[in-house]
Structure formats: structure tokens, C-alpha cells
Specification:
This protein is of the alpha+beta class. It folds into four domains: 4-66, no CATH class; 71-145, GMP Synthetase, Chain A, domain 3; 151-210, no CATH class; 224-261, no CATH class. Helices cover 27% and strands 27% of the residues. α2 (68-95) crosses α3 (126-136).
């Protein structure tokens, strides 16, 4: 069996695997293939993927490499999707629905028109779908997404001055909790540790494994331990100098190396 290619249908999106169907496909080529929503245009992010490496057996072949005619249709679909957004927004107002439209997308063969939206609560959009189907004469699908997915689609600039990680390279959202900020001894100010989406910064997760490994068996801040026969409280730790700071009841300060607790 031939090796597979890895394809994404949006930047930093989920990876799908296809066989090449005998085509000479290279890295960064645009291909036409069946996504979970229908016929779509994707980008090849890796070639010569061995099936056993990714654990897939039954895979579909790509339809073809993107042709000039496909490109024309694709560009027209992008323009029409923008127009569809405006129509959908007006219909949302007419129906008085509490939802925020994020993106519209046509499948390449226009067999389906997708609308992505966010909402704080569950929305009954059945009447809206009927209206849209009568206007666009194709199958309509509305998909509710989370606020993180919204910014993954929209993109933007983070407080670091670079493009948002979710819109450039993060393919999945790992859980991020305040525990990571506390381990890194960051000041717990929501404005400083939250991203553009309002959720905790994804980058808090990047160094978490290092901190967890370094702090294994090390007393937590606030924990009481005994130092030279006196009781003391851990007030600080530093994974770079590999020391904890302990203050005794007599206000004496001790620096104790991590090695004492290994």
C-alpha cells in the first residue's frame, strides 16, 4: 500500500490523512478532498506518512490536485460566503436570536453552506435554517463553536506581539488552569494571564511540564517544614537556582536546595 499524505482544511486545523490516488503530490500543494463536511480544498502539510505511524487503515483518496478551475470556484465561493454572512446577520436580527456569527463557508461544490456562530446559551435556529435554505438553495448547516474556536478562525495579535498561537500552530486546545500560573509564580491578574479570547493563556501550558518535573517532591508554598530544629513556612521556590525559601517563626530566612528533598 502507498504511503499517505497529511492534509489540513484550515490553518492549524485538524489533520486528515488521505491516499494520493496515484497523483504526484508535494508538500504545501492544494488538493481537493472529502472533509467531514463535504468536498473541500485542503493543504498538504506532510507527505510519505506511513500508515502504521498514524494508526489508520481505511482512508479515502484525494479527489485531485487543485486545478485552475477549482481555484476560480474556490475564490468565488469565498466572495459569496462573505455576502452570505451579511444576509445571515440580517436574518438573525429578524428572528431575534442571541447568537454571534463568526464565519460562513461554502463547500467547493456548493453542496453545503456552513455558518459558524457563538452563543452563551442553546439557540433554536430551525426557522433561521429554513429561511437561509430558501435564499441560498443549498443545504444549510449551523455549527455552534466556543470562544477559543472563534479566535482560532478570526486570528489576531497576542499580548506578546505575535499572531495568536491558536491561529498559527496549535491544532488542539489543551486544558489550562490557574495551577500553571501559580507554579510559575505569576501575578494572578486576569488581564495579564488571559488571552484575546478571555480564557487563560494557552502559553501557560508550554512550560508546565518543566515546572512539574522540577517541583516533584518539593514542598508547596505555604507548607510548614522543619529547618534546623525550627518550624518554618515555605514562602518561595526558584526552579532556576533550584532552591526554596523558608521563613521561620523567628523571621529567619533560609535557602534550601531542592536536592535536600529528592
Amino acid at each position: 500500500m502507498d504511503n499517505l499524505i497529511a492534509v489540513v482544511f484550515q490553518t492549524a486545523g485538524k489533520i486528515y490523512y488521505f491516499s494520493t490516488n496515484g497523483e504526484d503530490v508535494k508538500y504545501k500543494d492544494r488538493v481537493v478532498a472529502q472533509s467531514e463536511f463535504g468536498l473541500d480544498v485542503g493543504t498538504v502539510v506532510k507527505t510519505n506518512v506511513k500508515r502504521e505511524e498514524v494508526g489508520v487503515d481505511n482512508v479515502l483518496p484525494i479527489e485531485r490536485r487543485m486545478t485552475n478551475e477549482d481555484l476560480k470556484v474556490y475564490k468565488r465561493n469565498l466572495e459569496d460566503a462573505n455576502s452570505a454572512m451579511e444576509v445571515c446577520r440580517e436574518k438573525i436580527k429578524e428572528h431575534g436570536l442571541q447568537m454571534k456569527l463568526v464565519k460562513a463557508k461554502y463547500m467547493l461544490d456548493r453542496s453545503k453552506l456552513l455558518f459558524y456562530f457563538t452563543a452563551e446559551e442553546r439557540v433554536d435556529f430551525r426557522a433561521l435554517v429554513k429561511d437561509l435554505a430558501s435564499i441560498f438553495k443549498t443545504r444549510i448547516e449551523l455549527r455552534q463553536i466556543g470562544v477559543r474556536d472563534e479566535f482560532k478562525i478570526r486570528g489576531g495579535i497576542g499580548m506578546c506581539g505575535r499572531e495568536l498561537c491558536c491561529a498559527t500552530h496549535l491544532r488542539a486546545f489543551d486544558g489550562v488552569t490557574l495551577k500553571y500560573a501559580k507554579q510559575q509564580q505569576l501575578y494572578i491578574n486576569p488581564a495579564k494571564i488571559s488571552g484575546a479570547c478571555g480564557k487563560l493563556l494557552c502559553c501557560l501550558r508550554y512550560e508546565a511540564d518543566v515546572y512539574q518535573e522540577e517541583l516533584e517532591n518539593i514542598p508547596d508554598i505555604g507548607e510548614e517544614i522543619e529547618v534546623e530544629g525550627e518550624k518554618g513556612t515555605v514562602t518561595q521556590y526558584n526552579i532556576f537556582t533550584k532552591e526554596i525559601t523558608v521563613q521561620t517563626e523567628d523571621s529567619e530566612i533560609f535557602k534550601i536546595p531542592f536536592s535536600k528533598f529528592r
